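FAQ

Q: What does a record look like?
A: Structure on top, sequence underneath. For example:
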């Protein structure tokens, strides 16, 4: 028995669905073809100014026409911000997830077991104890909110869940930290003034001596330091803070030690890169994304928390209509007890499929290739008299400038002409071209082309 919103003509719908799948696979098989980015044409923009339809009609043709007009991150010459390139595996996993249409807020059903498996894998990756907890979330921004709230509430013995944000609580991160940490302080009512931005060294890594001084000054002023976030892979340069030293300070000062590892902590899977994350296994919490350097299709982030009991105590809420029960209402604890969302889509399938289809060795070697490519690009830049490398090249991000032309003009031209999509950032007060390599499709030829085109556009 079909519902009124199911297809009347299943064979026709099936044919349409197969056509869309083919269009999607064509798009990914030919990800290197065409411009990296192009603006949405006027006729397509017009289609999205229509009034809310009262009657149904054809939907898929318009969506298929949209396929070439993404951000560009499936293309090998997308180097902007920090976007993963995705995989066809994720596309197929999303079909299965779509068919199940499961809500992963809780209860006893298949996808919840897949999420539990992913949590166990992540725990193992970072050598966290069995008692550690985790949650799949939209991205590192939300993961950070979950971690900071757990840290704040544990500090107050969970009284802050009733009484609100703790007065006088202060936290620390570096000047190079991502804005999501300040945003978490804002959203949680701690206020961004309560987050001290610690200066960095010449390699853009947090200065531990400055961290210690800031903590001392705050204690002397009668404030309560409770939290420090180190970054493993800063968004500007890929710098990795001295995590082990920060962990030692955090332990001595009884601070919650959080690591923002949005893309960088994925390097834990690589035998040759892992050592750069020394100290990460001492963290109280880690926030990171599967959708960045692990190329799970958007969106898929994760928060891992060492003290699983505190994590649950910071979020648990089980009103009568959600009481732990039997049969379908079993499966305690439910994911909803570990984060702010009750309705949760099925991100677990695409993450599980990525690891299962590719294995950690292939994922690690794609990262290692990007790190080697960063060095290759740095050498290409240094060999060009018109370009200036802005060191250091810590991991997978290369920043440089043109001696005569403006970085923003060059980057805009590269994007507008569909050649490549780097972004810009500001380092030591100077706007630079920033090339981020979290792209498993990029080749050395793409980097050579990029440098050639930057030189050409700068003339
Ligand atoms: C270091 C760092 N932290 C946090 C974030 C935010 O992650 P998300 O966009 O998944 O919320 C990013 C995004 O690029 C990042 O690079």
């Amino acid at each position: 028995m079909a519902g009124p919103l199911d297809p009347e003509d299943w064979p026709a719908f099936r044919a349409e669905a197969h056509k869309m799948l083919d269009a999607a696979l064509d798009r990914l098989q030919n990800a290197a073809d065409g411009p990296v980015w192009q603006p949405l044409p006027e006729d397509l923009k017009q289609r999205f100014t229509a009034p809310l339809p009262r009657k149904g009609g054809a939907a898929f043709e318009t969506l298929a026409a949209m396929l070439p007009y993404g951000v560009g991150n499936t293309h090998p010459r997308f180097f902007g911000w920090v976007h993963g390139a995705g995989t066809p595996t994720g596309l197929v996993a999303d079909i299965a997830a779509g068919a199940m249409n499961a809500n992963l807020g809780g209860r006893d059903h298949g996808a919840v077991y897949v999420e539990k498996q992913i949590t166990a894998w992540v725990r193992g990756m970072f050598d966290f104890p069995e008692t550690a907890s985790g949650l799949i979330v939209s991205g590192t921004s939300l993961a950070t909110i979950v971690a900071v709230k757990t840290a704040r509430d544990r500090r107050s013995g969970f009284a802050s869940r009733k009484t609100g944000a703790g007065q006088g609580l202060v936290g620390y991160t570096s000047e190079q930290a991502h804005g999501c940490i300040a945003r978490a302080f804002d959203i949680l009512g701690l206020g961004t003034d309560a987050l001290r931005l610690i200066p960095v060294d010449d390699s853009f890594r947090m200065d531990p001596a400055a961290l210690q001084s800031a903590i001392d000054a705050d204690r002397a002023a009668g404030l309560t330091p409770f939290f420090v976030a180190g970054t493993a892979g800063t968004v500007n340069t890929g710098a990795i803070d001295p995590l082990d030293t920060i962990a030692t300070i955090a332990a001595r000062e009884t601070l919650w030690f959080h690591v923002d590892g949005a893309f960088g902590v994925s390097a834990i899977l690589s035998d040759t890169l892992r050592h750069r994350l020394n100290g990460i296994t001492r963290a109280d919490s880690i926030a990171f994304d599967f959708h960045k350097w692990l190329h799970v299709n958007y969106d898929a982030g994760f928060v891992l928390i060492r003290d699983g009991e505190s994590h649950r105590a910071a979020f648990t809420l089980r009103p009568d209509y959600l009481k732990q029960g039997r049969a379908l209402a079993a499966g305690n604890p439910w994911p909803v007890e570990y984060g702010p969302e009750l309705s949760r889509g099925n991100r677990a399938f695409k993450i599980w499929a990525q690891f299962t289809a590719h294995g950690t060795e292939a994922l690690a070697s794609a990262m290692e290739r990007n790190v080697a490519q960063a060095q290759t690009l740095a050498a290409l830049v240094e060999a060009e008299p018109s370009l200036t490398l802005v060191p250091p090249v810590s991991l997978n991000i290369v920043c440089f400038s043109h001696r005569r032309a403006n970085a923003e003009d060059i980057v805009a031209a590269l994007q507008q002409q569909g050649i490549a999509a780097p972004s810009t950032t500001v380092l030591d007060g100077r706007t630079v071209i920033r090339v981020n390599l979290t792209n498993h499709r990029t080749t050395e030829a793409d980097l050579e082309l990029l440098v050639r085109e930057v030189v050409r556009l700068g003339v």
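Q: Is there anything notable about this one?
A: The chain has two domains: 10-87+362-459, 103-345.
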